Amino acid sequence: MGSPMSSMPRHFLFLLASGRVDGNTEQLARRAAAALPPDVARTWLRLSDLPLAPFRDLRHGPEPYPDPAGHEKVLADATLAATDLVMAAPLYWYGLPASAKLYLDYWSAWMRVPGLDFKRRMAGKALWAVCALSDDDRSTADPYVGTLRLSAEYLHMRWAGVLFGSGNRPGDVMADEQALAEAGRFLL
Ligand SMILES: Cc1cc2nc3c(=O)[nH]c(=O)nc-3n(C[C@H](O)[C@H](O)[C@H](O)COP(=O)(O)O)c2cc1C
Prior knowledge:
The chain is α/β, with parallel strands linked by helices. The protein has helices at 24-34, 71-81, 98-110, 118-122, 142-154, 177-186, and strands spanning 11-16, 41-46, 84-88, 126-133, 158-166. The protein has a five-stranded parallel β-sheet, sandwiched between helices.
């Protein structure tokens, strides 16, 4: 028997986590998305448009986590509606940008919102990443990749891998021929 996800129509959620609009990561993610079949649903959310409050660890206090509201609800609903999550996040200090990390921290809250059933509903979804970086040595992104891969495994998601693109100034990635070729088949 396949996972419940395998019978659902594919729906890709692209989470844009760069600190600037239309940077290398976003350009590469849009290139990868363009290769998807036209009938595949896709939603784009820019994390900087949906700022979250500092994360609060309420796990061991008297009150349960409240139902998500505002930007948090937009992100939680979109996350649960997707079959495939694409973290489109550049490499910042060998790891994820703060907005992406904060979004991941909220998974810990959503797992504990009474009635949300977040962990069970995340199981079987795929987690992908698109990452622009300026360093030629891709092993410097090991902390970034490890964070996403291990978090996916923790939620019984499928870690689908990372598409890297080289660049520093916006648009540089369009000269990374290998990244562009990989983008054409990455999400398929
Ligand atoms: C705060 C910050 C930290 C960065 N840290 C790294 C890093 O650790 N390794 C690296 O290769 N590039 C690093 N960079 C460079 C970016 O990854 C690179 O400019 C990338 O193209 C930015 O992606 P974007 O165009 O999608 O915004 C950093 C840039 C910023 C702004």
